[in-house]
Each structure stands twice: as structure tokens, then as C-alpha cells.
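Continuing the batch. This is chain 6 of the set; chains 1 through 5 are on the previous pages. Same settings as before, nothing changed between runs. Recording input and output for traceability.
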Amino acid sequence: MTEKPIEEERLQAIIEEMWPRLKRKHLFPEIPVPKVGKVTDLSIEEDGKDDSTERRVGLEMKEKQMTINPSFLSSLKGKMTEEGLIEALLDHGITHYTFCPWDFQTHLMLYAEAKKVMGDKESAKQATNYFIDVIADTHCVKKRATEIPELHRNLKKGNVEEVIASLYQRIWGIDLGIPSSNKEGKDHSEIVRRLARIPYLDRSRWSESIRKFTRSLKPLLLLAQQEQEARGGKGDSNPQGEHDMNHYSYEEIDEGLREYAQKTMGLSEFREVVEDFSTELKELG
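Output for chain 6:
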């Protein structure tokens, strides 16, 4: 077994010291102590060159194990304290397990609704990821003491992320330093106004809410997709962690598929959603 670098050991000690307080803050979720280590980063080119140092993934979630990326922490050095940055990432990760999406069946339902609006698999997954993140971060900011706003103030942003941050400014009532128009001089205030009317924390309305959310973001998501294709199909990784099958155990996926099948009206819709996740399902066996 290889020894951990001294820097990783130091960061691990910080996590272990704050973990009892974090568990208490989030009402004692059954989650193991987070680790420090390498994470999968989709924004790094295959030749190993990083296309944007501040776009590294900060957090990886596999089943219930969270892993903090030390490279991401160093990329924000001087902008946030290490403790504040680690706590913000873990607050975000824990809230995915305790509030949204909560379970795999909910994840499938949200994806299916987003796909009705977007029409294709990749942009529907992207819309679902943004929606899940908005709910998790908003729940945390409204219900807990957290450094999540400070994290969003310091993250680099593309057009979609800038609109999401403007939405946060509006619904959280916290200045994140986002101007009313972006670098290209485009004013997205009407999109932000529409997004701000969505009741993100009302679980009973999530299926309707994600359709409204996706419709509002659709032009920007399509533009981002075109830009991504022009770059050769490589998208930026989500600094707060990707939302994929790795979140869930085999048992959770099996149970989620059964529940989703029972709640889905049409067999064709169920088949389509399962087909969209077929690659990930095959990888998990």
C-alpha cells in the first residue's frame, strides 16, 4: 500500500477534525468520512494537459464515498481558506444524499422530464445536473450555515454558470459579484427572472419545475453544446462533482429502476430512459 503524500495527510486531518461537526450540521447522515485523493477530471485532455486549472473537479462522489481533490484546493489558494473550501464542497455533496436527488428513482424522473424539453440525451443530462445542483446549494444556503456562496463567488464561469450564479444572487439575496450583462454584453436578466420564480425546494413540484428550468436554459445549453462540439466534444467538468451512476450502489440502482418502472405510465418512456443510461448500467454490471 503506497503512503499518502504529506500534503494529502494534512488535508485529511482537516477533514477528520471537521467531520463530526459537519455530520451534526446535516443531522447525522450515514456517510463515511470523506477522503483526499485523485479524482476523475473530464476537463483534462488525454495528453495530460489541463485546459483550465480552475476547472478541475473539486469533489467526486462514488456511492456514498466523497473524495476531495487537492489540486482543486490549490487552484483556489488565496481566494478561500482551505477549511472554508473543503466545508463548502462537503456541504454540497452531503446535500445530494440527504435532499436532492436523494435516490436514483428521483434522478431518473428528473432526467426524463428534462429530456422531454431538450430532446437529446447529453443536453438533458446537463440540464438535470444544473437543476440538482441549484436545489442542493439553495437548500444548504437556506437551511444551514455554509461557505457555498463564497465558493460560487470564486469559481470560473461560462455563460450557463454565470446565469446560475445570477439566479443564486437573486434567490439567496447574496452578492456574488455577477454583473447584469456578461463579457459579450448579453443581458440574461429575463432568463434569470423566469428561473427565480421556480419553487426549487418544493419536492412535490420537481417534475414541473425541471421542465420550466430546462425550457428557460435551453438556448444557453444548446449554445454551450455547439461550442463544446467545436472544441472536439470536450466539455468542462463540474467543479462540485459530476452526477452519474457512480453516486449509487448496485442495490440503489436496482431499486430505483423498479420504482421508476412502477411510476412511469408508458413502457416506451421507461425503455428510452434505461437505454439512455445503458452504457453506464453495463459498466456497473
